[in-house]
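ok here's the first one, seq then struct tokens
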Amino acid sequence: MKKINICLIIITSVLGVISALSDLDRSIAFILKDLSIVITISLTYILNKVFKIHISEYFSFIYIIFIFMAHYLGVIERFYGEFIYYDKIVHTLSGILASYAAYLFLKGKGIKDTLLNIIFIISFTFLCAGFWEIFEFVCNIFFGGDAQKVVETGVDDTMWDIIVAFIGSLIFTVFITIKSKLIKN
């Protein structure tokens, strides 16, 4: 699994650099957006090396696929603008991914209280979705653009992004709760 992850990171990083080279005639914001995928897609390995946080290869794989979809296809290849529901699909997947990260954290702590686990997983997903929307908003301010469609729709896009992340979290939480109950029986 580690070899697959490293190959995916290298391929996506090369694609990001190629995009940056093709954007040399555009603003620095476009070039930084293209190059930032190298750090973003490598984040699980960076966290492991710098902060000694062990992240499983399976979680890294899911994260890499998510970043490829969200950052490379969505931002660099402009799928967000080309496909009407692409943004909502990616935000739903982000809810599932954040829920899985919260679940792994709880699993490592050995907390068995089902209700507490559900509340923690959903709250963690809301936290991640909220921080992402703040990050997106701040990037819009500093680098220009309107990723949140503030000019067109006000907070509509932001609220839907958080709502579909919540739906993704609910899907994961129901799945993992049922799976846990079945394993116990």
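and now the second one, same deal
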Amino acid sequence: MVSAAEVAATVTDPELPMLTLAELGILRDVRETGDGVEVTITPTYSGCPAMETIRTDLLHALHDAGYSQAHVRTILAPAWTTDWISDSGRAKLVAAGIAPPGPAPRRAAGPVPLVLGVRDDDVACPRCGEQSTERLAAFGATACRELRRCPACREPFEHVKEI
């Protein structure tokens, strides 16, 4: 039987379906206990509308793999950061034409404010590599993405904002 951790690691994100929850860094822990399986996830931000779909997808994948007693627990601390996106996840974003985030802003200890504002520095085009791109809209398909355009290849693309 495939382990519960291996099963959970294959579930994809509903908003970025080229990434698994593990690659996105929101899959925090998977434990098999005498009572079943407990999966721990951390949302990309506390109001993320995809969390119920993620929970349902995890439970379906585990049930389909033979884990009938599964529970998904959401934790908010430590807060998720784009730094948790794996190298393979970043490469998959680029392959899908989405610019991955740069390093997350460093903040003092304590609560981490959610900042989904305007990025001041350049974002490289995921298609041609041009370093200087322009922002078309502060928000893309989701609040954590922005819409940009490359002046070299003239293609629009989304960029995952740093959190």
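notes on #2: The longest strand covers residues 27-33. Residues 51-64 form the longest helix (14 residues).
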